Amino acid sequence: MNRKNLSLLLVLIVAAVSTVAQDSVKAIPTGSKVFINPLKDGFETELAAALQAKKVPLEIMTDKSGAEFEISGTSESKKAGAAKIILMGSWHSSEQASITMTNLKSGEAVWAYSVNKSNSAHGKRSTAEACAKHLKEKIESGK
Amino acid sequence: MFRSLSHLFLSLAVFATAAIAQASQSSSTPAATIGQVAIESSTVLEKAPPAAFGKEKIPAGSRVYIAPLNGYESFLVAAVVKKETPIVVVNSRERADYEISGVSESVQAGWAKMIFLGSQQSNEQASIVMTNLKTGVAVWGYNVNKTNSVRGKQSSSEACAKHLKARIDGRE
Predict the structure, then answer these.
(1) Which chain B residues touch A94 with a CB distance below 8 Å?
(2) Which of A28, B102, B149, B170 could form a disulfide with B155 if both were Cys (CB 3.0 to 4.6 A apart)?
């Protein structure tokens, strides 16, 4: 009976340790060095500006070799056509973007986010800031 | 007056008979083709597929590499994170146990769709296949088609991630 209890306790400890270890692998520490890969239509510049604007606690690197994390992704932008302006009464563009943050040592994707805005008030800036806001939330959550 | 009415009825009756005849003919034609296909497929099915095909269990925590899908791979990673699909996405094929490949297509709403349907949402379709890199067997596949996708590629990728999660959890 005692042996059974002991083995059960051991299993529980191992499970808890592995869960904590897994969480720490996925965590993004404050002040991490990040390299932003060139994205479609210069979205990397918008993203870097958004990270600054939203005060995301990351250090942006221009050289990949010095970075711990890497951001890659894609973005799409469509300006409002005549039909949208006349029929929908909206001249705002449609924007969608998706970014993935990868740990360069382990090669694992630690965080990813996608955003879609049918009537983006500030074009690419809005989608970039949405990504930055959610990245900040992830870093501050510490998970 | 009576003559013209009877002529009208007659022509209507002729049209109706022709339409019925055409309908019965068209319904009988596919039956013949289905029959032919059944015969052909029965000859093909003589070679039984491997028992393990498509039934392989995908373990939670498997390392998965998503091949470049013209930008759709990024949406897929985001969807995997959002739907909490229990896999680890890696950036290198060498580090992975499984690989996801596929195709996606997006068609923006044109002026005709905006006028007649009052919708500015895009049409999205995607199809992905997950392959075991050791055995080379396709263990899972899913395709999605959304006529009015509320959130574009995000919606279709989340559908894929949701169904992958269900497959890993053994619900599908």
Answers:
(1) 108, 120, 152
(2) B149
